[in-house]
Amino acid sequence: LAKTTQPVSMDSYEGQEVNITCSHNNIATNDYITWYQQFPSQGPRFIIQGYKTKVTNEVASLFIPADRKSSTLSLPRVSLSDTAVYYCLLLNTNAGKSTFGDGTTLTVKP
Amino acid sequence: NAGVTQTPKFRILKIGQSMTLQCTQDMNHNYMYWYRQDPGMGLKLIYYSVGAGITDKGEVPNGYNVSRSTTEDFPLRLELAAPSQTSVYFCASSYPGTSGYNEQFFGPGTRLTVL
């Protein structure tokens, strides 16, 4: 399973845009880049998924360069409630396997 | 829809005991997964299933067994519980689309302590 690397932690302030980068040098052709959010004592919650270029939904954007060896999750105008752990993982839809890294702990300060 | 449900929510086991963690989903998803999450760490895949009757090992399968006799249920069996199996266990399900889209839906977790 291809491994992902993310920063261990990040701090931000309310109202700022936050960008979390994930490195995945050994990404496979069938891997989709997926981001999850997890609050304490809860299961992870899906944020966004993409294969290449840019994907945007109501809560985030995902930027993927042409070589797909990295990706950036962008959270616009964060609030205190965005304080959580964010996981980048590669989902191989053919095999069903997935690997979570240790995630990035985002702390949003007032 | 209830989504993914897990029982029990909490359990304390003695070393050497056995138990089954239950997971049920009502979304007709063909893919199901079991993860464990140790304190301060990410999730590690234990077993997964791509359909009824089909299961496969993940990263950390030792000490666990699974079965998938129906689309809805994916129980995880712990035999001879050990302190190293103290963790939070999450079950998830998904329905990969033809375009590759694959969102996993997670249950609330089972917190297991082995003493």
List keywords for this structure.
heterodimer; A: 110 residues; mainly beta; 0% helix; B: 115 residues; seven-stranded mixed beta sheet
What does this structure look like?
The complex is a heterodimer of chains A (110) and B (115). Chain A has 110 residues and is mainly beta. In chain A, 0% of the residues lie in helices and 52% in strands. Chain A is globular and about 40 Å long. Chain B is mainly beta and 115 residues long. Chain B is 0% helix and 49% strand. Chain B has strands spanning 4-7, 10-13, 19-25, 31-37, 43-51, 54-57, 64-66, 76-78, 87-94, 105-106, 110-114. In chain B, the strands form 2 sheets. In chain B, strands 2, 4, 5, 6, 9, 10 and 11 form a 7-stranded mixed sheet that branches. In chain B, strands 1-3-8-7 form a 4-stranded antiparallel sheet, with no helix packed on it. In chain B, a hairpin with a 2-residue loop joins strand 5 (43-51) and strand 6 (54-57). The model of chain B has no long low-confidence stretch (mean pLDDT 92). The A-B interface holds A 1, 30, 32, 34, 36, 41-46, 49, 51, 87, 91, 93, 96-103 and B 4, 31, 33, 35, 41-45, 48-50, 56, 58-59, 90, 92, 96, 100-109.
